[in-house]
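Minutes, project check-in
Item: structure for the 195-residue chain
Input as provided by the requester:
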Amino acid sequence: MMQDNQPKKRGKASKIDLLPEALKKELDALLRDKSYSQADILAAINERISEQGLGDEKKISRSGLSRYSMEMEAVGAEVRAMREATEAWVAQFGEKPTGETAQLLLEMLRTQHFKLLMQANADPDMVLDAKTINALALALQRLESAAMLTMKREKEIKKAFAEEAAEEIEKTALMQGATAEGAKLFRETLLGMVQ
C-alpha cells in the first residue's frame, strides 16, 4: 500500500524548460500577448529554434506549448487572485493597517508567496516568467518595508505613551514627597523599559 506522504518524483525537464533563456523569454512574451494564436506562436518559436541551429529535436510540439501555456495562465491567475484578495483585505481593514491586523495580513501574504515559489520549485514543468518573479520580489520587498514601518510605528506609540506616563509618575512622586532625584529615577526607569 502506497503512503500519501511519499515525495513526488521530479519529472523530465520539458523542451520549453531547456530552451535558451532569451528564447524562453520571447516565448513567454508571445504567450502574454493575446493577439497571437498558439499556432502562430508555435510556428514563430520553432522557426527561431531553426534559426539558432538548435536542431529539429529541440522544436516544441503543439501539446507541449498548450500544456506550458495552461500552466503559465494558472500561475498568472493565482497571482491575480492573490492581488485581488490583498486589495480586498486592505480595503476592509483600511489603507494603513496597524497592530495585529497588519501583522496577520503580512504573514498571510508571506505564506502565499512562499507556497507559490515552493510549488514552482517542486514542479519542473512550472516555470515562473520574469515578470511574475519581479512582481513577487517587489511584493516581498514591500511586505518587509510595511512590517518595518508597522514595528517602527508601534515603537513610537509605546515611547510616546511611556513619556506621558513617566511625566505623570514624576509629578505624582514629587507631590507625594519624593525627592527630585527619586522622582527622576522613577521616570528614567519607566522610560528605560520601552527603549
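Outcome recorded: Helices lie at 21-32, 38-51, 62-93, 99-122, 130-175, 180-193.
No further action items on this chain.
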